[in-house]
């Protein structure tokens, strides 16, 4: 997969912080093998004093904050710990749902294989507020606001509500094909049919916080793959 220059992903930058629209299929942190691309490496190449304030899953797109100096990194770390940073994600989930200001309060832990799991005995507190933005016949566009920051939190929380994220086969989501929603779908000869989206349809859409007395609200446009997926279901998956 080809990536653009780091600078092309920057949504906002000042003397203390950088906000980028992270592309899909690039890790936040350096790969242990040290071979794959990472936001951490890109940001270090751009500014050697930079540090990631948080992380996103490899296949999740959207807003990622990067501190440009140690003082700002410490300040942001405190804000994340105190839950003083509001994050909003958009997810396209399988099924038609009607969540409205629903708080999913399900403790989570991480398995030895690095997967999140529901763990009501020894899991850590995990909360996500969810509200459906738009309904379709077989899908729902859902706004998710994580109040905690556990591994794969939104993905598994939605799965517990029978609303797994489309394309998220790790946690029960389907691979969504156009032929299942488009009437008179015709496949070209020798054409490989690909899913409408080939990763979990999850995007970090906006973030709000205050830093050194200045309020910030930064939005990230949807990436091409999720935007196309949304356009297709708006066109073909209505009643």
Summary keywords:
239 residues, Pseudouridine synthase, two-stranded antiparallel sheet, ten-stranded mixed beta sheet
Question: How would you characterize this protein structure?
Answer:
The protein has 2 domains: 1-82, Pseudouridine synthase (2-Layer Sandwich), CATH 3.30.2350.10; 86-239, Pseudouridine synthase. The chain starts with 9 loop residues before the first strand and ends with a helix. Helix content is 17%, strand content 30%. By secondary structure, it is an alpha+beta fold. The radius of gyration is 19 Å and the shape is globular. The strands form 2 sheets. Strands 1, 2, 3, 4, 5, 6, 9, 10, 11 and 12 form a 10-stranded mixed sheet that branches. A two-stranded antiparallel sheet has the order 7-8. Strand 1 (10-13) and strand 2 form a beta hairpin. The model has no long low-confidence stretch (mean pLDDT 93). The longest helix has 13 residues, at 224-236. It has helices at residues 39-46, 70-81, 153-160, 224-236; strands at residues 10-13, 17-22, 51-52, 61-67, 86-94, 102-105, 108-110, 116-118, 127-135, 139-146, 202-211, 214-219.
